[in-house]
Amino acid sequence: MGSQEVGEYNPVELEKKILGYWRDKGIPEKTLRKKRGELFSFLEGPPTANAPPALHHVEVRVFKDLVNRFQNMRGFRVPRKAGWDCHGLPVEVQVEKKLGLKSKKQIIDYGVDRFVEQCRESVFSHIKKWDELTDRMAYWIDLQQPYVTMDNDYIESVWWSLKQIHEKGLLYEGHRVVPYCTRCGTPLSSHEVALGYQSVKEQTVIVSFPVKEEDFSLLAWTTTPWTLLSNVALAVNPEIEYAKILFRGEKYVLASNLAENRFPDAEILERFRGQELKGLEYHPLFNHFIGKLDKPAWRVVSAPFVTTEEGTGIVHIAPAFGEDDYNVAAEHDLAFVNPIDEEGNFTEEIPELQGVFAKDADEKIIGFLGEMQRLITQYPYEHDYPFCWRCKKPLLYYAMKSWFIKVTEVADRLMMKNQQISWHPGHIKEGRFGKWLESARDWSLSRNRFWGTPLPIWRCMECGETKVIGSRQELSNHAKEKMPRQLDLHRPYVDEILLSCGCGGNMRREEYVIDCWYDSGSAPFAQFHYPFENKDLFSEHHPYDFISEATDQTRGWFYTLLVLSTILFDEPAYRSCVVGGLLLDENGEKMSKSNQNIIDPWELFDSVGADAVRMHMCSTAPWNAVRFGTQTLNQEVVPTLRTLWNCYRFTARYMALDGFKPEDYENADPTLEVEDKWILSKLADTQDKLTNQIDERNFHHALNHLNEFVIEDFSRWYIKIIRGRLWMEDQCRMNESKTACYKTLIEVFNSLCRLTAPYAPFISEEIYLNLVGGESVHLEDWPSGNRKDEQLLRDMQVAKKVFEAGSNLRQKAGIKLRHPIQKIYVCGGEKIKQSIARVEGVILKQLNAKKIQHTKTLEGASYKASPDFSEIGPIYGRDAPKVAQAIKNNPLEAKKILQTKGKGSLGGFEVGYEMVSEVALVAPEKFEACEFTVLDDTAIVYIETERGRDLILEALARDLIRHIQELRKKRDLKEMDQISVWVSDSPQINEMLGGYKNLIKKETRAQVVEAQENLETKYCLDFEGKHIYYDFSL
Fold first, then answer.
1. Burial (CB count <10 Å: 0-12, 13-18, 19+), residue 920
2. Of 495, 511, 527, which closes a domain?
3. Burial class (CB in 10 A: 0-12, 13-18, 19+), 380
4. 377-431: per-residue pLDDT in tens?
5. Cβ pair 923, 867 in contact under 8 A
6. 201: in domain
7. Which residues form the catalytic set?
8. pTM reported for the whole predicted model
9. What element of type H or E holds 260?
């Protein structure tokens, strides 16, 4: 521990090594099996393992793993059961492709039992790839005891829940217009539809409908010309103003405001309310159903949903293909016409289009309308249209029988329970998710498919009575024949179970399966086989403390979880939810198959490592889009990890040089230097910030604090300060200062590894094992900030500000930081003065200065105010020069006006801040000055730019040291290798060596440092225009 040689940072090799260590020691299992502590309940969203995992799966797994590790280290017991979503169209569609099946009929011909078995085998076809990804990215979750939605126990719990919903009066069968996929042959729920919208451009038409026994026609607009063959009515809003127009010799009626927009050249003959059109009859567009309908058709009805936002203000009604249309038809007892079969094709009722897919018929129908002189105009219209979320075929809105959950009846409760959820980001609550709840529709539950949880409803073939079954025992109790003990509850096996009806008839199961989103929405209770067992376990977990999935789940899993939990348990399923954002490529384009820019996560793991991927996932707010690519990671994340590694490497190297072993100094209590106390205090401050930000799910803010500590505080400040303490002449001897340094470094790494562990579990483990010791950082507790010294933090804040200002002044004056300066002057208030006194040594060391002096003012310093004539002139005219002079004469007052963005009186004139261009600090001769703000006070740093002979000679020595150290690196010398240094002879060199030979020896590990005449070497440094040659030998 602490004595091994540490090489360059190689994340891929490091992570491979740590994965092996975790497997050998069973570290993940030890964290998962933690039995003690208060429960923090987590619910895994179940993926489907019939396709390989992708980068977007990695994203939310990073967030979940981060929170779970964090809570586990804080002492909570965090069970993490994996889950697999096994049913539904995602699986069926893939099996159909594999088998070459293209319709439900072909599936039935193939054999439902064979097809179901193929689905069962397909479910875990890529499970190995999922397990490998889970392991490689260090997503620690229990893969040995997952919940599986196709297990009989799980299905039984789902059946129980449906019976509960039925008993609450919220499960019903209805004939309604539902989103329907003709390729999959099944209706979809509203939340499924929301997942598949695409932008499309289609031809829309305005069509004329001649009114019977009148000389005008009604104009209706539609985006779905194929539905015109099913038209049975036209709807108008009784309160809207309509107009009769004369256009190209024909009279038409449409909404008044739309008439003026669409037909600006038309003559308006009269205006009237829509109420006057009600009851008019018109000639149908097509004659296929004339004399064949048993209810009224082809008349004008009133409907309040009709608007004038687009179209004509007259809506064509086709009850079979629109929810509003269906409701209007029911209200007015209109005929029902549906010439489209369940595969989406026109039937023999429309001979000229028989067998044509509905949406493919638009062009032909528009041609028919033109021939009939019913087409007034057509134009392309771009809008969002729903497509099947799995097979990507356009959906039809189609009237059919289905089983529904009456979500509309519990909508108010859903919105109330939503208020109890902590959403991240917060705007999801009232925004995307809240608005979705406001428009919640009844859940179309049944699916005309094969592989899924069977709908547990049996119907009597004699009397039509239905029975909802809630358990295997209940099924067995009502079965006509003895049920097999190990009955598979899937189709077609469960379909063979007949029940006895009270009328004496046989009851057969409704041949539906249920929406697979219901399966995943049942995970909170079904994973425990609730209520048949584990009641206490479920009650302890529910509501779950934390879930996280991608943003599309606001209308998927997040929604179904809330619906079922609210109905069944009257509480939300989860307390806190982090919504993952989109992944973009390096050009800012959304990753998608169509864009051909999807990145394989393994490509990233094999190039930059999982730690870098995880940290980059957390570099922006989880809900924001994040750019991804190897170049991005190498530029933005790997340098931070390398900085952490180099801090570890530095520590390990010097500990090895000194033979420092932490266990030998366990009881040592050295006096800490001010920088030691500060870094421990800053670490405690960082710990508090990380704890608070991760608690608030602001992973990005927490990571920013962590990165700032590693880069700015630890690497660029503390380690830079202590280098001199560790690089001492007697390297092989320990002293109190070194002991304090090493013990501080070990304490920092002890906590820093724990803070880093949830973000970068691999590098934190490697450093912890080698510097700190112990079995695993992931088995340790989360650190608490118990050494915070607020005053010291403020003092060092002043020191950093002085250093920053001094460094800028050095750069301005052209003085390198390694070249010493004589004196720093700081002008500021009492607080600043006291802080400087407490950290004076740090400032002098960091700025390479001999002295620092606090003073109220520096003689010769002043301010120069510059007026802005472009602002003064328009206001003061001829007095503008006087105002400008007043600003110049009163620079301090002008400075206050500018700083406060206010106004003030100067020379008798009112001067606003916009009239002051700038107020510049003017340093005395041979000084540079810089003004800054710290501790709510303004301070000025001055440095002397004039350097005496001694400072110049020391600067030369420092330059020589720098060049020799670089040459040591090029020649791969070790720290302890002794050398002899030779420098080209000159009076200046001899003078320099007279004062700084020992310094050069100490810093370069030289036994000899001598000047040599006519030194032949290629190594040369330029110092103030002179060439100085140097070399060394072992």
1. middle
2. 511
3. exposed
4. 998 888 888 888 778 888 888 888 899 999 999 999 999 999 999 999 999 999 9
5. no
6. yes
7. 46, 85, 517, 553, 557, 590, 593
8. 0.85
9. helix 256-262
